[in-house]
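Much of the work behind modern protein science is quiet bookkeeping, done one molecule at a time. The protein below has been through that process, and both of its lines are reproduced in full.
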Amino acid sequence: MTTPTRLRGRTARHARAAWNVTKTLIQTACFWTFFLVVVPWALDAVEPALGFDSQRFEPQRGVGVAIFALAGSLGLWSGITMAVIGGGTPLPIDCPCRLVVRGPYRWIRNPMVVAGLAQGVAVGLYLGSSTIMLYAGLGAPVWNWLVRPWEERDLVERFGEPYERYRRAVRCWIPNLQPFSDSAAQFAD
């Protein structure tokens, strides 16, 4: 019996786009509930005991709502693109069958991560909580150093040179000014 040397994403079974979108929306609702409601609520509840004061300014709640809505739209667009074009979901247990280099992925490699982090900052801003903003900010290095290397190894193994070409052309955190275009990358299965 062999022991796997590392975890690998499981490619999704063939399904209709509507089912992949449904699964993606359920996953998104679970993610948002836990990481953008439950954890921030807990942090906000313990913040006074930690000696942190709320940071408030006049239009803060409106700015928080606007950022949350924009980032949420980006996250939904990214997930739905992955479900429809990629034939899977964002979860590693239901990975896309096809390399996704369309939609928001034409400008940035990880739009869902950027969107989620921005939403976390938006929640902190809405509540005036520096602890929640710190929590959101810590998500970037955690994802960058723990999750991204695993994810990129998996994508290289599943999609090979088309993914390598995409990775060289599209940045991880800062959107490109020109959208990525590589028809060869879209045919990897």
Q: What stands out?
A: The radius of gyration is 18 Å. The chain has five helices and no strands.
